[in-house]
Write a structure and sequence with these properties.
Shape: globular
Structural class: alpha/beta
CATH class: Alpha Beta
Order of helices and strands: EEEHEHEHEHEHEHEHHEHH
Number of helices: 10
CATH topology: TIM Barrel
Largest sheet: 8 strands, parallel
Strand order of the largest sheet: 8-7-6-5-4-3-10-9
CATH superfamily: Dihydropteroate synthase-like
Number of strands: 10
Radius of gyration: 18 Å
């Protein structure tokens, strides 16, 4: 399986890709304001890469439940200087976490090569045409509603079937506008318009999405559903729960993990991969090599 993102290519199977989260916002639920300046964001990106991140996901608008929308001009002002600086310094692919086509275009012009789109459920084709024009990688995320409404009593008859059907429909829809399947990554959108039981059903059903023959991205890092399970109120205290999800996701064939805590997640992924290699009958040397 091949994923193309601009000039970057990833062939699977391969070690799980870890996408480091870089929030350039004053109000993110996990690290709001900590990396709001260009200098702080670039320094943080360097740290994420040193810890083992394969990709960087830059976002200028909080998408936590109930977050207020940010005008496109302000979002561009926040992210483009950071992306421009990173594109001139690092070789890792840069993703723009945005739901606005005009922000995606500005970011791609500045050096990004992936669009991570929480609003991939839209009917308008503008974002699809931008992605096709730049041949960018495109993360198609499932969300019910908007960040302002998504957690207002979300309901499904069969959440796994509905998310799976969304992926099938989007893949066909995107091809109409020139977005090739090889550009697309699928994200079930944990926490985006889902109650706790929906999140757990999706996590349990991750292997089902392999039928689309596209890489699957999982983003559970520091999310509130982990706190509901463990009783931890602070986002910073949810790392053990997130690592449990990451290890199980690797077992179930997820190819990308979007995380805040890169070093810890890389270790969890490598250990899970080594166990998988042993289960498949890999030689001891192969297992050791996967941990190096």
């Amino acid at each position: 399986m091949l994923w193309r993102a601009g000039r970057h290519e990833f062939r699977f199977p391969r070690p799980t890709l870890v996408m480091g989260v870089l929030n350039v916002t004053p109000d993110s639920f996990s690290d709001g304001g900590q990396f709001f300046s260009v200098e702080a964001a670039v320094d943080r990106a360097g740290q994420l890469l040193r810890e083992g991140a394969d990709l960087l996901d830059v976002g200028g608008e909080s998408t936590r439940p109930g977050a207020a929308p940010v005008p496109a001009e302000e979002e561009i002002r926040r992210v483009v200087p950071v992306i421009r600086q990173l594109a001139s310094r690092v070789r890792a692919p840069i993703s723009i976490d945005t739901q606005k086509p005009e922000v995606a275009r500005a970011a791609l012009l500045a050096g990004a090569s992936i669009v991570n789109d929480i609003a991939a459920n839209r009917a308008d084709d503008t974002m699809a045409r931008v992605v096709a024009e730049f041949r960018a990688g495109y993360v198609v995320m499932h969300m019910k509603g908007t960040p302002q409404t998504m957690q207002q009593s979300p309901a499904y008859t069969d959440v796994l079937r509905e998310v799976d059907g969304f992926f099938a429909e989007r893949l066909a829809w995107l091809e109409q506008f020139g977005v090739r399947r090889e550009q697309v990554v699928l994200d079930p959108g944990i926490g985006f318009g889902k109650a706790l039981e929906h999140n757990l059903e999706l996590l349990d059903g991750l292997p089902h999405f392999a039928r689309h023959e596209r890489p699957v991205l999982l983003g559970v890092s520091r999310k509130s559903f982990l706190g509901k399970i463990t009783g931890t109120e602070s986002a910073m205290d949810r790392l053990p729960g997130a690592l449990a999800c990451a290890a199980l996701a690797v077992r179930d064939g997820v190819q990308l993990l979007r995380v805040h805590d890169v070093r810890e997640t890389v270790q969890a992924a490598r250990v899970a991969e080594a166990i998988q290699a042993c289960r498949r009958g890999g030689k001891r040397g192969e297992v050791s090599a996967s941990l190096d």
